[in-house]
Specification:
Strand content: 15-25%
Radius of gyration: 18 Å
CATH class of one domain: Alpha Beta
Shape: globular
Structural class: alpha/beta
CATH topology of one domain: Rossmann fold
Number of strands: 9
Number of helices: 9
Helix content: 25-40%
CATH superfamily of one domain: P-loop containing nucleotide triphosphate hydrolases
CATH architecture of one domain: 3-Layer(aba) Sandwich
């Protein structure tokens, strides 16, 4: 049995003591593929930011097992400004190797950067400016950047948002391949059909919190609830 990496107990989430999500309990083990689903404003992104220590929980606790906070790769939702960032692809990717109080990249950092460039098939456009890439190419670059920070866990916030169906399927296939290679995936998704296709665990955040297998999720009718709200 794979050891646990993150365990959340009785989490209440929010800002300035204003609670946006209550009573969240779940556990993520090494190799899991967890999809976080729920209505807009239910607290999904707040949960991810709390896991990354960007927010503090209003109450409850987060216990880290076989993963440290600095061993989590993060792919956030992109803003318009970020999409127009005038850096090279290689500069973006290697920036994932940055650590506090470490001003210079090491030989291992450059090696890791090149490995992830090949891993995500970015070689053909690695010399381009990030701002000149398509949406799908930009997401692959950001995923490679996140991989430079970890070999254990990726937190992905709507990684296929705004992508066309073909590129969306390509991105899901890449994420599934990384999961098969042993990387734990925690992904926020509005795409419930794909969540149920790829994930082994579902966390539904909302008035009635659910955590369990995708089969349990469907059996209890939660999947139908989400479909009906699309």
């Amino acid at each position: 049995m794979n050891g646990f990496q993150i365990s959340c107990k009785n989490l209440n989430l929010g800002y300035d003591n204003h609670v946006v999500a209550k009573n969240i309990n779940f556990e993520v083990n090494a190799g899991d593929y967890l999809c976080i689903v729920g209505e807009n404003g239910s607290g999904k992104s707040t949960l991810v930011k709390t896991l990354l220590s960007l927010n503090k929980p209003v109450s409850g606790e987060i216990i880290f097992g076989d993963v440290k906070r600095n061993e989590i790769g993060y792919l956030p939702q992109q803003t318009i400004i970020q999409k127009d960032f005038p850096a090279s692809v290689r500069e973006i990717i290697i920036s994932g190797c940055q650590k506090p109080f470490k001003p210079f990249y090491t030989k291992n950092d450059y090696k890791r950067c090149e490995e992830n460039i090949e891993r995500l098939n970015i070689t053909s456009f690695v010399k381009k400016s990030y701002r000149d890439l398509s949406g799908g190419q930009q997401q692959r670059v950001l995923l490679a950047r996140a991989l430079c920070a970890t070999e254990k866990m990726l937190l992905l916030d709507e990684p296929v948002a705004g992508l066309d169906p073909i590129v969306t399927e390509e991105m899901y296939n890449i994420i599934e391949k990384l999961n098969r290679e042993g990387i734990t995936i925690i992904m926020i998704s509005h795409d419930i059909k794909s969540a149920l296709k790829y994930a082994n665990k579902i966390l539904h955040v909302g008035p009635n919190v659910f955590f369990g297998s995708k089969d349990e999720y469907l059996k209890l009718g939660h999947g139908n609830l989400v479909f009906s709200n699309k």
